[in-house]
Amino acid sequence: xxxxxxxxxxxxxxxxxxxxxxxxxxxxxxxxxxxxxxxxxxxxxxxxxxxxxxxxxxxxxxxxxxxxxxxxxxxxxxxxxxxxxxxxxxxxxxxxxxxxxxxxxxxxxxxxxxxxxxxxxxxxxxxxxxxxxxxxxxxxxxxxxxxxxxxxxxxxxxxxxxxxxxxxxxxxxxxxxxxxxxxxxxxxxxxxxxxxxxxxxxxxxxxxxxxxxxxxxxxxxxxxxxxxxxxxxxxxxxxxxxxxxxxxxxxxxxxxxxxxxxxxxxxxxxxxxxxxxxxxxxxxxxxxxxxxxxxxxxxxxxxxxxxxxxxxxxxxxxxxxxxxxxxxxxxxxxxxxxxxxxxxxxxxxxxxxxxxxxxxxxxxxxxxxxxxxxxxxxxxxxxxxxxxxxxxxxxxxxxxxxxxxxxxxxxxxxxxxxxxxxxxxxxxx
Length: 429
Description:
Elements: E1 5-12, E2 23-29, E3 35-40, E4 51-54, E5 59-62, E6 64-69, H1 85-96, H2 104-118, E7 121-127, H3 134-143, E8 148-153, H4 161-175, E9 184-188, H5 195-208, E10 211-216, H6 223-228, H7 230-235, E11 243-247, H8 253-261, E12 265-268, H9 270-275, H10 283-289, E13 292-295, H11 308-323, H12 331-346, E14 363-366, H13 380-387, E15 393-398, E16 401-404, H14 412-428
Parallel strand pairs: 1-4, 1-5, 6-7, 7-8, 8-9, 9-10, 10-11, 11-12, 12-13
Antiparallel strand pairs: 1-2, 2-3, 5-14, 14-15, 15-16
């Protein structure tokens, strides 16, 4: 795409503006796919526009952000039904991980990328694993991704503190020339070490500009031990403004409030948490405490579908049912959580997450069959969240460039390749 492009005639969802409802409008992008103008009503005619894209009165949402995912798991759906997190790990990671061969991790990660994109997710934090080709293949898949990737490097959890730093050093050498091509970079800090070791690692990561990303207080069977170690995490510098706590379900008031005061963030994964029986995060309590909240679709082997609409509804309905209160959280708030708030959690809100001047034109075009054109503007928030799904997506744009057309836009060659690889793994396992 070259020059200026005007996207006209869509109904825009201003998730960043608490005082504005969806409105019919337009926006213009430059050659880099950055929004340079945006407005209500009809787009200016003529001028310097080289290209005009007529959105045809469709609903235009900011591209969704998954602040916590495991892209390689995309090919293992339906695995370990009826198992909680730890038993599920046994059935997936420990059963298939050791059998991965060169090329598998790259292919599976690419499959996950395309699958999330088809479902309207234009930015994803990919939490990696060391299986198969490990970081090298996952990093190459990141460079080839059709959407924005926040990369979360994960050295094996059983390594000592010194070994972890050695693995980090190898990874930094691997990515040295291309680090600028990811939206953000973090490291998995799950795993117990001494306070001194944690403090040293945290200081080094801060110096390197690498965030901290941890699975924490997810599975109820290990929650008590993790709760007991929380103050050591604080003393070790692992709880701060660069910390992302994935799941964060089984908290105490002390843990919740301390994390909020430290500026840490949590990622809510309703589909995965429900599927694995992990529990329901206290989102209303976290909001009241001032904790920053994003949303993720987690891995497609635990959430099984990366549909952000389904993820939002699942979380919303679980909270309302648990509290017997339909007003405990509204549709507008949860839509913002899965877009702008998730971008903020990852530290990329200046780049994406909302349709604003100066940000990348990452957006999702939806054309639902249900009549909606005469709905009052405030009702479009619940209409989008409560009634739509990824099947209503007709276009997915990253940086103003159309990168997908919805769930039906599949990469058949990639699917065929992954099918053969997975068949081999099931035979081996």
